[in-house]
Q: What sequence folds into this?
């Protein structure tokens, strides 16, 4: 075919002046793909002519798409504070600046400055966690799922772990407790029923093969009505009487009392530590409000055994995670909770949110039909299942745009909203104060 003979040669095509200053390797790779696609289209008779300028534009567009960062800053106007899809907890800017200093210089990650010899990386957060929680020892891995796996693998390989049927959860990403147990080598011993588990169920399940009584936080659901479960305090007592390990996978642990009655059936880490438990694990990037991590605290002899597990090296955290986590924990120690964005958003009053929403409404009501409304949202991230918290939102309507059309347009401009009662809502619970001007400018520019 004549068109096939007209296909540009890659080695000549890539010398075009439009590609000057770009990576030759990447331009060549993309050009080969674009030209091969052109060849296939000619053979399939889907194009009738070759436009070299269009090919150049396609290569440049593909080049730009490849080198542009995929992760982008967005405005979270959903109202969900610990939004798993939007990066969970925000980090404090000052905390990040301190971490940059650590990450861009040599540091004492595994060096004991007092002794002048090799130290332990976990020592940097152990002292703070001891002071905060009164634990004997602590260790940090890359997330709480890792913490669960590592604990079970260390203590329960080929041994039984007793868990209530009502706590055999599946969370995001198909993370299932029974499957994690199987992968770790632990043997699951289910007790009770889906809706009711009694203390006697734990007591009757214990035998010579039992190594652990485990409680699991129901991160993304709750059981209502005719139901009952055994408190961790009671589980600790039974475990200690029988000289076996008690372990609470808290999922999302919080250090302080939470507003809006969120503490109901959601004891804090400090409350649980009053029972003198064997082991607890919880996430760093949920209600704790820090970086992604799995934090394990408990008895020193047990933590020491975990440290000797060869899997720990695969799951350990780096200097950046440790620096960020230590700074967040220090904010708790100093009672400087304003430095923890998750808590700042959670504790923000509806009066403050209403003032911000009203101010934005006044700036854009000549463009949109909008109304400041009282609404409710959730903390999110598998933290306090099915518990609502009050919030303030600004409803948006524009001429004959349907809600899904407006939501899509906002999303294209990196504003993530939600639709409720056939209206697009911007929920101010999660819109940061320093984002208000940016939000205003984007909204004004959408239809101008």
A:
């Amino acid at each position: 075919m004549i068109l096939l003979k007209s296909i540009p040669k890659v080695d000549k095509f890539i010398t075009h002046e439009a590609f000057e200053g770009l990576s030759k390797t990447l331009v060549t790779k993309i050009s080969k793909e674009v030209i091969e696609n052109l060849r296939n289209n000619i053979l399939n008779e889907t194009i009738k002519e070759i436009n070299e300028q269009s090919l150049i534009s396609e290569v440049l567009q593909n080049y730009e798409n490849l080198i542009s960062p995929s992760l982008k800053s967005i405005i979270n106007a959903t109202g969900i504070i610990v939004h798993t899809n939007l990066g969970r907890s925000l980090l404090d800017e000052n905390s990040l600046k301190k971490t940059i200093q650590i990450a861009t210089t040599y540091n004492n990650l595994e060096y004991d400055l007092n002794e002048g010899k090799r130290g332990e990386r976990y020592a940097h957060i152990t002292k703070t966690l001891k002071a905060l929680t009164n634990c004997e020892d602590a260790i940090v891995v890359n997330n709480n799922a890792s913490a669960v796996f590592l604990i079970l693998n260390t203590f329960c390989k080929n041994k039984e772990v007793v868990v209530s049927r009502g706590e055999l959860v599946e969370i995001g990403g198909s993370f299932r407790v029974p499957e994690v147990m199987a992968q770790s080598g632990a043997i699951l011993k289910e007790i009770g029923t889906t809706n009711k588990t009694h203390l006697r169920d734990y007591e009757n399940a214990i035998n010579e093969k039992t190594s652990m009584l485990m409680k699991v936080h129901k991160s993304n659901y709750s059981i209502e009505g005719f139901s009952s479960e055994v408190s961790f305090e009671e589980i600790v007592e039974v475990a200690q009487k029988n000289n076996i390990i008690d372990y609470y996978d808290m999922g999302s642990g919080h250090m302080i009392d939470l507003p809006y009655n969120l503490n109901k059936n959601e004891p804090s880490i400090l409350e649980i530590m009053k029972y003198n438990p064997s082991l607890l694990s919880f996430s760093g990037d949920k209600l704790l409000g820090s970086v992604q991590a799995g934090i394990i605290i408990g008895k020193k002899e047990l933590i020491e055994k975990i440290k000797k597990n060869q899997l720990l090296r695969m799951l350990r955290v780096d200097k950046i995670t440790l620096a960020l986590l230590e700074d967040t924990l220090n904010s708790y120690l100093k009672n400087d909770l304003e430095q923890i964005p998750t808590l700042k958003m959670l504790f923000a009053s509806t009066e403050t949110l209403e003032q911000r929403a009203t101010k934005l409404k006044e700036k854009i009501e000549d463009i949109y039909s909008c109304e400041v409304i009282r609404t409710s949202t959730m903390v999110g991230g598998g933290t306090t299942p099915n518990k609502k918290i009050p919030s303030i939102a600004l409803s948006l309507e524009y001429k004959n745009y349907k809600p899904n059309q407006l939501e899509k347009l906002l999303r294209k401009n990196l504003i993530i909203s939600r639709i409720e009662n056939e209206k697009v809502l911007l929920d101010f619970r999660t819109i940061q104060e320093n984002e208000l001007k940016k939000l205003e400018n984007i909204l004004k520019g959408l239809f101008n």
Remarks:
- The mean pLDDT is 92.
- The radius of gyration is 27 Å.
- The CA atoms of residues 373 and 393 lie 5 Å apart.
